[in-house]
Amino acid sequence: MRDDKDLSEIRTIIARHKLWDLIFMIVGVLALMIAVLTFMALFAHMLIEGMPRLSWDFFTSFPSRRPGSAGILSAWVGTILVMLVTAMAAVPMGIGAGIYLEEYASKNIITEIIEINVTNLAGVPSIIYGLLALSLFVHQFGFGQSILSAGLALALLILPVVIVATREAIRAIPLVIREGAYALGATKWQTVSDHLLPYSAAGILTGVIIGLARAIGETAPIITIGALTFIAFLPPSPIKDEFPFLSFDWLMAPFTVMPIQMFNWVSRPEEEFQANAAAAGLVLVVMTLAMNAIAIYLRYRMRKNLKW
């Protein structure tokens, strides 16, 4: 009788756990559907409002006070240049810092404090980075309200994301890879460069692209350092006709970006400008989704070809 009672209690507990699992699954699916349907509704609204404005002239025209002839040429060019500076500043520094913290740094109280602060910095509001960039890059270093200041501000914003992604990707590599390399006489750097980095490249690249996808839509840091809301000219070209064929004058040029251009149009009362803002938002969403899709594809291909 005692065994039957224990068996009945076990079955009751299992049934209760299955019920809670079912409830949790239903709640999770509902939460996911709410998020997905909300995004789909917003995207559909932008598609309906902005699709008629998408044309070649829209991409090759400067902003204008006449909504019918206004375009996003200066905005998307500025966005590409700012993201170029961001990637050049954040990616090497973030990957290097992640490798050092994971493979070279001693495990002591100072390292733990640094790791905690890096993790916490990933959740700091973006406006704080804008204020820091305003004080440091714009005023202290004298870069002014330029593409360089904007790129460095966004680099600070995504730097913790790149560091954390690099560390997690390296940490996921089995310990036997390191032990095998050391057993064959490899140095620390040979182990890192020949084994750890190639094997963790998929995870690192995914973190980098996701960080850049976050930075491309940020508005607060860019507004804080003084991005222009209306600009009808392009920065100097990075390529020249004469030697050395490269020019860095564009780094100090004034600029605008896609989110700022959208903000400018949304703040105007004319309905035509709202359609322009929806079209610009549609372009920005497609750019962000494309970057995330590239990250997923590259991660899939790299992991598919990975052999331990």
In short:
The chain has 308 residues and is mainly α. It contains eleven helices and no strands.
Question: What does this molecule look like?
Answer:
By secondary structure, the chain is an all-alpha fold. It is built from 11 helices and no strands. The chain has helices at 2-50, 56-60, 73-104, 109-121, 126-140, 147-171, 175-183, 188-216, 220-224, 258-266, 271-304. α5 (126-140) crosses α6 (147-171). The radius of gyration is 25 Å and the shape is globular. It starts with a helix and ends with a helix. The mean pLDDT is 84.
Keywords:
mainly alpha, 308 residues
Topology:
Layout: H1 2-50, H2 56-60, H3 73-104, H4 109-121, H5 126-140, H6 147-171, H7 175-183, H8 188-216, H9 220-224, H10 258-266, H11 271-304
Summarize the biggest pleated sheet.
none
The dominant shape is globular
Q: Tell me the β content.
A: under 5%
Give the end-to-end Cα distance, rounded to a whole number of Å.
Answer: 54 Å
Unreliable runs: none
Instruction: Kindly report the average pLDDT value.
Output: 84
- Strand and helix order: HHHHHHHHHHH
Radius of gyration: 25 Å
> In terms of quaternary structure, what is this?
single chain
Number of helices: 11
| Class based on secondary structure composition and strand pairing | mainly alpha
Helix content: over 70%
Strand runs, count: 0
